[in-house]
Amino acid sequence: MKIEKYSIGTGDRFAHQGKAQLAAIIKAKQQGCSLVPVWNKSNREHSIIGTKPADLRAEADAAVKALDWKDSYYVDADHINLNTVDSFIEPSNFFTLDVADYIGQKCDENDLKNFIAQNKKFLGTLSIPGVDAKLNITEKDLEQIGSKFLLAVKKAGEIFRHVAEKKGADNSVTEVSMDESNQPQTPVEMFFILSAIAAEKIPAQTIAPKFTGRFNKGVDYVGDVAQFEKEFNEDIAVINFSIKQFGLPANLKLSVHSGSDKFSIYQPIKRALKKTGAGIHLKTAGTTWLEEVIGLAIAGGEGLTIAKEVYKQALEHFDELCGPYATVIDINPAKLPTSDEVAKWDSEKYAKTLRHDLDCPDYNPNFRQLIHVGYKIAANMGARYINALEKFETTIAQTVTENIYDRHIKRIFID
Ligand SMILES: [Zn+2]
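That is the input. Now the predicted structure with zinc ion docked in place:
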């Protein structure tokens, strides 16, 4: 199984927007852009919402059938590890092996020795086509990089073999993800990580590094865009060089775990893809849930009532909701409206405050981030929330499709 050059991760927390998401990809196809969908959902999301990996497969299959999608599509066991992978194996065909927790943890001495020996040929000056800087690699560098990342790669190997044993090695796509770590990986680190991945015989088709800058959930990129662009281009160069050096899958590409909506780096990404001809996997998971809330608000009536209640309760459970996401959100509580204020809002005011339109004076990133992590509130509403999604399907579907197509796909993949 070989993933296509361009793919987009369309997570969907409440599993009701599969068709609306696929509609955006069909729209791209009509514009001449071949893009394949990957429905992704992490174990954390499944457990908070009370769904199972098989539900995501059912959603994807149903959407594909309903819209008569003939190209490939994938179901991603997102951010899994050895403890959580089992229930994902049967329904998934894309596995995001999350080994970020092992970065910096001590690896086996012999493994480290082997790693250094295998990479000795790169000592001294290393020039990678597409990377301007002359790199000088010392044995100390190898030791440091190995000590930092080798255990993580070994763990990825364990998960890969566990999946391959049950599913067959060629029946899924493998991604190695290190994005949920504190420090970005440099292009040189990435090169030796890929060396270790190849030595571990993991046929990685996508790799998700942690890029420079902050990737807060659901809001724009915070960081040095020029530095990001430089590193992103260097990462592509490193991948191309590594494919040849280490015999990794020829379609190996970067996976950007965007946390959604990193609009200010979309142009640099687009330029890099154009210039280099590289492929990409773009995960934009959480935005669909926000579009559901926007759709409910626009629908008015019970929809708007639910949208307001989600905010009210999210505010009341601020610490509990924000805790697990502490490293990927940045909310200034002083800039959050009170629930009494929100209670007076009409549909338009609510939608404009939440929608990620940087030109709109009502847009409030603090409000948006709190709703983003507030999906547990909707999950606790149970049937009431799901019934509203079904009742207002048409309005919501429109906001979901428009968001994925206009704000994401168009900005990266369409000229
Ligand atoms: Zn991620």
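The mean pLDDT is 95.
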